[in-house]
Write a structure and sequence with these properties.
Layout: H1 14-36, E1 45-52, E2 56-63, H2 83-102, E3 105-106, E4 115-117, E5 126-128, E6 135-136, E7 138-140, E8 160-161, E9 179-181, H3 208-225, H4 238-249, E10 250-255, E11 258-263, H5 285-291, H6 312-321, H7 332-337, H8 339-342, E12 378-385
Antiparallel strand pairs: 1-2, 1-8, 2-12, 3-6, 4-5, 7-9, 10-11
Helix pairs in contact: 2-3, 3-6
Bound molecules: adenosine-5'-diphosphate and magnesium ion.
Residues 113-114, 130, 368, 401 line the site of magnesium ion (MG).
Length: 405
């Protein structure tokens, strides 16, 4: 105490701290899902039920049921899906992400296992699921958490239904201007899909929506290539380090419907990086050289990164999404305007190679459950026991989800 009085601060048992964190996570998931309401590309939360017993309580999340399985199960190893199919799912994914971001919520665990399909048909609609690691990145002017604000009832710990459905929007809206953005700090996500800046080394925290864009880039690469682009640990991944070096040599200039690659060395010293608003750059040193046939074009330098069957247009989109520097990574609107996203330049045919997933390079993300037949109803249960109760967590507890790093 300031007056020098000695006080005793009891040690909080680690078990209790863990329990509190897990409970906080579940309430955050419920709050964020309730805030989201309904959208065609986002799984809806219908109701939360709580079963209270003497020493524990179990929360049941009643979710909209889908029966088409996971997007993961539709990707052919070593080959991917046809680009036309990938484009369709990717547009739906962007619609869902855009909706969540417009509501001030970022997902932080986007991966094919968390993208479910409405039915087993080829025309199934993609729905983003598993908001267990989601975060509200928009804060109301009074400093409170913007997304969690509308979730009254959740904090009381009692069952509640979500609010009235929100209108569907496919535009990449931004959160209302009364909200301000906050940088996130929790290092969460799934290995292989998590952005490089989501790291304990990042002093400034990270931009949640940009981290989702990175994951979308890994997903689209995986869909079209049939393999994962990088290893689990980006810091020690030789492919990622080589990929990052390419961005040190080249600047991406975002244009109306795509991107232009400019050699960094051709910019005058100290010049600001060109923006989308600026006029298209003149022919660069790299372009000149490629015309002379002397050296690979900037895009050709990345041939090692893409399987041969991936089209030029898909490649150009992927490098926008996977810019290692989040401030130079494409925004959602830039991604939506890209020609590949809009439907151009995709490869129609794929061969009939069908292999089982889960081998060598391309395997299910850690902690993800094996795929299974979809139940008729979907209900997830999380048991919240008091910390000293014997059975602290029931199976399927949200605390075990998402493969936190
Ligand atoms: N609404 C749903 N309808 C059908 N299957 C679902 C639904 N929600 C989840 N699942 C299935 O359960 C799996 C795990 O759910 P998820 O919410 O991702 O939790 P976890 O945190 O365990 O990853 C999903 O990958 C999917 O196969
Ligand atoms: Mg999941």
């Amino acid at each position: 105490m300031p007056d020098g009085t000695a006080v005793h601060i009891p040690k909080v048992p680690e078990k209790y701290v863990k329990w509190l964190r897990a409970r906080q996570g579940i309430y955050r998931e419920i709050a964020n899902m309730s805030h989201l309401g309904q959208h065609k590309n986002v799984i809806s939360l219908f109701e939360v039920l709580e079963y209270v017993q003497d020493s524990k309580s179990t929360l049941f999340l009643s979710l909209e049921l889908v029966s088409g399985g996971e997007l993961f199960d539709r990707i052919k190893i070593g080959r991917g899906t046809s680009e036309v199919t990938a484009q369709r799912y990717f547009r739906q994914l962007l619609d869902g992400i855009g909706y969540c971001h417009a509501k001030g919520v970022c997902h932080r665990d986007l991966k094919p296992e968390n993208l479910l399909l409405s039915d087993p048909s080829g025309d199934a609609v993609l729905r983003i699921a598993d908001f267990g690691l989601s975060a509200a990145f928009a804060i109301a002017a009074n400093g409170s958490d913007g997304a969690a604000q509308s979730s009254a009832g959740v904090s009381s710990g009692h069952s509640h239904s979500h609010g009235s459905p929100s209108s569907c929007s496919s535009s990449p809206a931004t959160p209302p201007s009364s909200l301000s953005m906050r940088r996130l700090r929790s290092v969460v996500g799934s290995p292989h899909y998590v952005a490089p800046e989501v790291s304990p080394d990042s002093v400034q925290g990270y931009d949640g929506p940009k981290a989702d864009i990175w994951s979308a880039g890994i997903i689209v690469y995986t869909m079209v290539a049939g393999i994962l682009p990088f290893g689990k640990d980006l810091k020690h991944c030789a492919r990622f380090n080589e990929f990052r070096k390419w961005f040190e040599r080249h600047e991406l200039v975002y244009l109306a419907h795509g991107v232009r690659i400019q050699n960094v060395r051709s910019s005058p010293p100290g010049a600001r990086p060109p923006s989308a608003a600026s006029a298209p750059p003149s022919v660069t040193e790299a372009d000149q050289r490629s015309k002379d046939g002397q050296r690979a074009t900037p895009m050709e330098e990345l041939n090692w990164f893409f399987p041969d069957h991936v089209t030029e247009n898909a490649r150009s989109l992927i490098i926008m999404l996977l810019h290692p520097e989040p401030s130079r990574r494409a925004t959602l609107s830039q991604v939506l305007r890209h020609e590949w996203t809009r439907g151009g330049g995709a490869a129609e045919a794929v061969d009939s190679v069908t292999q089982q997933l889960g081998k060598t390079k391309f395997s299910r993300s850690p902690n993800a459950p094996p795929s299974r037949d979809q139940p008729r109803q979907s209900c997830q249960a999380s048991t919240l026991a008091s910390p000293d109760a014997k059975n602290e967590w029931g199976p399927g507890s949200s605390s075990q989800r998402g493969g936190p790093l």
